[in-house]
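note to self: dont lose this again. the chain is below, predicted strucutre after it. 132 aa total, dont forget to put it in the shared folder this time
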Amino acid sequence: MTTVWKTGGCHCGAVKWEADVSDDVVADECNCSMCSMVGYYHVIVPASHFRLLMGEDHLTEYLFNTGVARHLFCKQCGVKSFYVPRSNPDGYSLNLRCMKEDQFTSIQIRPFDGQNWEANASKLAHLSKDDA
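---
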């Protein structure tokens, strides 16, 4: 599996990041209350595969329910291009919709049942490990 650092960020450009992601990316489409409302496609990576390039001062945080997930939004445009998910607090979830598709050889979107999060979260835990 080939990986190359890919770029992403928010709508206004204030927040920019890069991540080491496979050329053949698989993203999870979660149906939980938050993800379904914002249309988030999760690409989960280990923390060591993510670098915030600019915009830390433009991020604002939203916590709810257990407070473990750190939902990070650009203060300027409101876009959540990445965050620290509850399922993978040792990594980052990147929003595939905030990355240019031409950076990938192939894209696969798979459904994830986040409405039944407690029963399914363990299916994602391995994605933030360096050997995933």
